[in-house]
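Input record (one chain):
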Amino acid sequence: MKNAEERRLSAAVARNVAFVAAVFCLVVSLLIITSYLRSRSAPPLDTPALQKLIEEGKGQDLKDEIRDLDLLARQAFFAGQQFRKTGTVLLLLGIVVLLAALRAAVTHSKATPDPLSLPEREPAGTALKGSRWAVGVLGGLLVLTAAGLLFVATDPLAPSSQGERTVPPPPPAAEPPVSAPAVSPPAGAEPAAEEIPQEPAYGPAPGREELLQNWTAFRGLDGDGNAHRDMTALRWNEEEGTGILWKVKVPRQGYSSPIVWEGKILLTGGDEKVREIFCYEAASGKLLWRHEASGIAGSPEKAPKVTADTGYAAPTMATDGLSAVALFATGDLVCVDLEGKRRWAMNLGVPTNPYGHASSPMIREGLVLLQYDDKKKGRFLAVNVATGRIQWDVRRDVAASWATPALVPVGGETLAVLNAAKKVIAYEIATGKERWGTACLKGEVGPSPAFAGGRVFAAQEWAPLTALDAATGRILWQDEDAELPDASSPYATEDYLFLSSAGGLITCLDAKSGEILWEEEFDDGFYASSLRVGEHIWISDFSGTTHFFKPAGTYEAAAPSRVNEKVVTIPAPVGGRIYLRGIEHLYCMGSTGD
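The corresponding structure, as predicted from the sequence alone:
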């Protein structure tokens, strides 16, 4: 009797636990589903209020409201995504407890058989087979339900906000590039012999020293933010009319930073109808030429949907001194010579991501290096800058990202290091072979890697700040206390690491240990990345104010400089002058004696 009473008590406890676990699973499931349905019916990245501001917004005040609302929308989007992921984990734990409790309840609910009074009865275990089979089926259904909710939890974007787009396959390496003004033959058709384009002559590219005297790519030649020149005394203030040599309005909006080569400034702009490259004379600001990215095989008839703070021309151009390449949100990659004549063009496939494409091309060893990650797949590919042929194309198991490759020196060679969720990965430039990969990132990855002193630094909201060994990818230290950047890439020296956030906080950390050395708060936040010019680090905030401080363990600042419009780009320092793109204008700053 005592044994039977204990079994009945155990069965009752197990049933109560199972009931509580079932209620818990039901509540969590409803919360996950509700969050998902809300994100589909009113996607945070496509709110009516944001769209109304975009359509009606004219003037700087409304543009600032758009930026602020968009930032809140993106924070809500990823907070909701994280909530659903956490809920799914809790749901799986609840299912485990529920199944264990049900199994215990079934096991203990059967009395021990009496072989004297029931000589013909089947063995005790046989009587439980049906119940155990039912519990197993129920468990399988619950696991399938959890798997479905896991998909819901990680769905990066509701179709109602972006829609599904067909991504064309990349052009085969053997196909000739599209050249202007020639028209490509229909897909699958062989061009006539006389129509096959000849590979253009491509003279030797300038050496490293000449490249460093110009400004050739996003954050400079290596992508490390080092200007390799001193302009310590240069200051400007548009309201006071000092330090600004000229200012011109850019015909089309874009968030690409300017690059400079031998007296020519190059940048891009565009909208849903037209995407263009603009070339200005550095001495005067005169528009020398403009090149429209049109007539490209595979380019979409209808431009993809993008958000206001990314647009169609966010990637910064790159040049090797002979050619310049530009990439747009349509997936169109265009290469021109420095007189504006097209060398080749191709479409890489329209990227599917929440905002629009923003990763910039880099050029090294005669190759255009392109980080091309979206929500369906990740790619890192190299295109021969002289011929337009794809050299290699590596598929990556990562999520959508907006970072740009950093070209990191390691033991006498250079590796391309890329940030994306969930990994920081280093590749050999000549072959695209992965050298190392370390999982340490999550969420939306916008900032590019920083590097110095044999270390690579990955900084991004929603993930710990991580320092990695540049040769092996081994994690050296991590920090979760610093305020991390939303889009602004960090800057590193051998001793210090500097972060700038969208909330307006600049943080200095010890590069060797990760210890926070100082923090300085500003009224406006930062999307632009920092830049080292001479003895100061420069960074522009949303308001158009450029701040200057020394790369040191204490905050040592110089007087700031200002223009009268929003700035989210990196200045290009060349020949004693600074070329800075605002939200509407291109500025040239320098002394009157230049």
